[in-house]
Design goal:
Elements (H helix, E strand, L loop, with lengths): L27 H12 L3 H14 L4 E7 L5 E6 L9 H4 L11 H5 L10 H8 L1 E7 L6 E5 L5 E4 L4 E7 L6 H4 L5 H18 L4 E6 L2 E6 L4 H9 L1 H5 L1 E8 L2 E8 L11 E5 L2 E2 L3 H11 L11 E6 L5 E2 L10 E2 L2 H18 L5 H7 L30 H4 L5 H11 L9 H8 L10 H5 L7 H4 L7 E6 L3 E5 L3 E6 H18 L5 E11 L2 H9 L1 H7 L2 E6 L2 E8 L7 H15 L1 H4 L4 H12 L9 H13 L13 E5 H7 L5
Parallel strand pairs: 1-7, 11-13
Antiparallel strand pairs: 1-2, 2-6, 3-4, 3-6, 4-5, 7-8, 9-10, 10-13, 11-12, 14-15, 16-17, 17-18, 18-22, 19-21, 20-21
Bound molecules: adenosine-5'-diphosphate and magnesium ion.
The site of magnesium ion has 5 residues, from helix 2.
Length: 644
């Protein structure tokens, strides 16, 4: 707002542009303060800029000291290349940088910084001192950014940046800062991102004189485990896909490691942490089939691509990027994550044992006996060797094995039983015949044990769990969750093929209905039809169910119809078939999955196991719960302290 006393007395006509003063260039300090408004939002932004500079300087050791959430003081000491004494004043100059020299270099920039304005911006809103020494110098030199005064100082090779009293000269800004704990939290967020991206760098953090974090240099997996915690460490899938110059790698958390908030989602593009809608969407879409709508996947993913293919100069804070070919990047990331999740399906015993069994608490009294989490298949996560390890014990070879033996096994006919149980006689998307038809009778179990990944049923526990023996040991299956998963995939395939088999009802089932339900029946006729439902409005308060999807003919039809109408109302007809398909399929599958407390015969249990083997992602139900655990003989031995 212009100061009224400075406004010229002569008023112009109302509404016309009013020029109160002559045009003049802004003073340097003010320009930097304006720039600081974008770059230096809070102490955490200072930490981010200083850390990026230290990494650009080749540091391998970072000591971060914060006081009062970083508002009072931030000190970052690195062991990077240092700044020559003569260049110290230049480092503080606006638009002065050692990182790029030309537009061509900007377009291929490989350093984290390049704008040459961070130090100038910070120095314009805080007290700042740089102490630095290069390997050519006998001692360090210190510069006071406020006065520009240089003085010799003690110090080893590297740079120590000290920032005090952030916003001391811009009180309006300072008022926007939050509590000490909140600002500290933001600083730690920034530090964690750097720590994830650079496990090869040792980092320690002190706050108000107390050590809060310390990470030694380590391999990527150890660093990820330290930062995301044990749950993530024991429930993630390594990922490493390359296509020409593109690479996506890192760790994708299993649904069991999902969270109520999106607070464990780390995406790095060429080593830079970014928050990018396109990438977030691609990952989210890949999880769609295994994760319930209100859960957030956890992941640490890296995308590497040629610098020319991505523009990092979109925002001064460089947290947003723009891809030259965003569509193919989206597809690449989506498929890489989706494949990793699908590959996990009922497959790798290591993954499941390490992931789920590891969460069981040891009951032994000695410290030695515990379910140590086995390394995941292809545990070298960054640049991992998962593809190679596939030839070992993982699911692909398992399935190949069972495929080879199928023709040679005398085959019982559990199909009728299976149909009776799951009502899938008319199922359009029947799995390959070898899977459902080849469950051998009990006498054959021992010979065939290693041909079937999930082994053969031993019995049932409390009508909830199926126990089976396979080559590795004991398999425990949550019947309801597993069946839900199978139905979900069957529906999905049938829907994709527009081949939902319809079961007309000889005697229509009528039910009372709310006005909104009546409305949905009338408006969403096409969608209901596509799903295999034929519902008719009988009166303003009742409807008749005349046909249902064959897969669901044995469900409680009234509550099924209600649930489907509720989904259609909540998400809208066209969306339940597209982006909300996941929710709808979940509703349908859940409604007909075999309930707990249902007695199954051994043949029925085996049919379920075979069906699981052919279902993609069979080891997570669509609510993100695991559907089966593998307890290996080794796990059992450890439990009983055998051989110790
Ligand atoms: N920790 C550091 N170690 C060595 N050089 C540094 C360090 N921090 C800053 N510099 C030097 O100061 C220059 C200016 O830093 P900055 O204002 O952050 O701009 P930018 O990082 O975009 O180049 C950098 O280009 C670099 O040469
Ligand atoms: Mg910088």
């Amino acid at each position: 707002m212009p100061d009224p006393t400075e406004t010229p007395a002569v008023d112009t006509t109302s509404g016309a542009a009013r020029r109160s003063r002559a045009i003049a260039p802004l003073p340097d300090q003010l320009i930097s303060q304006i720039a600081a408004g974008e770059v230096v939002e809070r102490p955490a932004s200072v930490v981010k800029e200083l850390l990026e500079n230290a990494l650009d300087a080749g540091a391998t050791n970072l000591r971060i000291t914060l006081d009062e959430g970083g508002v009072k003081r931030i000190v970052i000491a690195d062991d990077g290349c240092g700044i020559a004494p003569a260049e110290l004043p230049l480092a503080l100059l606006r638009h002065a940088t050692s990182k790029i020299r030309s537009l061509a270099e900007l377009e291929a920039v490989a350093t984290l910084g390049f704008r040459g304005e961070a130090l100038a911006s910070i120095a314009s809103v805080a007290e700042m001192f740089i102490t630095s020494r290069t390997s050519e110098c006998a001692h360090a030199t210190r510069i006071d950014a406020q006065t520009g005064a240089l003085a010799p100082a003690a110090g080893t090779v590297g740079t120590t940046m000290e920032v005090r009293e952030l916003y001391f000269n811009t009180p309006a800004r300072r008022k926007f800062l939050k509590s000490e704990q909140t600002e500290l939290g933001h600083c730690l967020d920034v530090i964690r991102r750097v720590a994830l991206a650079r496990p090869d760098v040792a980092i320690s953090v002190l706050h108000n004189g107390k050590a809060v974090e310390h990470w030694n240099t380590s391999d990527p997996r150890t660093r990820v485990a330290k930062i995301l915690g044990e749950v993530f460490d024991t429930a993630h899938l390594p990922l490493d896909e390359r296509a020409g110059p593109l690479a996506v790698y890192g760790c994708a958390g299993l649904p069991t490691a999902s969270r109520g908030r999106a607070d464990q989602q780390y995406f790095f593009v060429n080593g830079r942490f970014v928050r990018d809608k396109l990438l977030t969407h691609a990952v989210r879409a890949a999880y769609e089939d295994v994760l319930h709508g209100n859960r957030y996947p956890s992941y640490v993913l890296f995308l590497d691509l040629p610098p020319e293919a991505v523009d990092v100069n979109v925002h001064p804070s460089k947290i947003e990027v723009r891809f030259r070919d965003s569509r193919s990047i989206h597809q690449f990331v989506f498929h890489a994550v989706q494949r990793a999740l699908a590959r996990n399906a009922g497959a790798s015993p290591e993954t499941t044992a390490g992931g789920h069994a590891a969460q069981l608490q040891p009951i032994a009294s000695t410290g030695a006996a515990s379910f140590s989490a086995k390394p995941l298949a292809g545990a070298g996560i960054f640049g991992g060797d998962r593809a190679k390890s596939e030839s070992g014990t993982s699911g692909t070879s398992w399935l190949r094995q069972s495929r080879m033996t199928q023709g040679t096994l005398p085959v019982a006919q559990p199909l009728a039983l299976y149909d009776a149980l799951f009502g899938r006689k008319d199922a359009p998307a029947a799995p390959p015949a070898w899977a459902t038809d080849s469950a051998p009778s009990a006498a054959l179990h021992d010979h065939a044990a290693d041909a079937q990944p999930l082994g053969f049923a031993l019995g049932q526990v409390h009508g909830i769990y199926v126990l089976a023996q396979n080559a590795q040991g004991l398999v425990i299956v949550d019947m309801h969750a597993a069946h839900e998963r199978i139905l979900y995939e069957q529906f999905k395939n049938a829907l994709a093929d527009r081949a939902i088999a319809v079961q007309p009802l000889l005697i229509p089932v009528s039910m009372t209905a709310e006005p909104v339900e009546i409305g949905v029946v009338e408006e969403e006729r096409a969608t209901l039809d596509a799903l295999g439902f034929d519902l008719a409005v009988l009166s303003p308060t009742s409807i008749a169910i005349r046909a249902v999807p064959a897969l669901l003919k044995d469900a409680d039809l009234q509550s099924l119809a209600r649930a489907v109408l509720a989904d259609l109302q909540a998400y809208g007809g066209s969306r339940v078939l597209t982006e909300r398909q996941h929710e709808l399929l979940g509703t349908l599958a859940c409604h007909h999955a075999v309930r707990a407390n249902r007695r199954l015969t051994l043949d029925e249990m085996n049919a379920l196991l075979r069906q699981m083997e052919t279902t993609e992602r069979a080891d997570q139900c669509n609510h993100g719960r695991p559907t089966w655990y593998q307890l290996t003989l080794g796990d059992l031995d450890r439990l009983f302290m055998r051989g110790q």
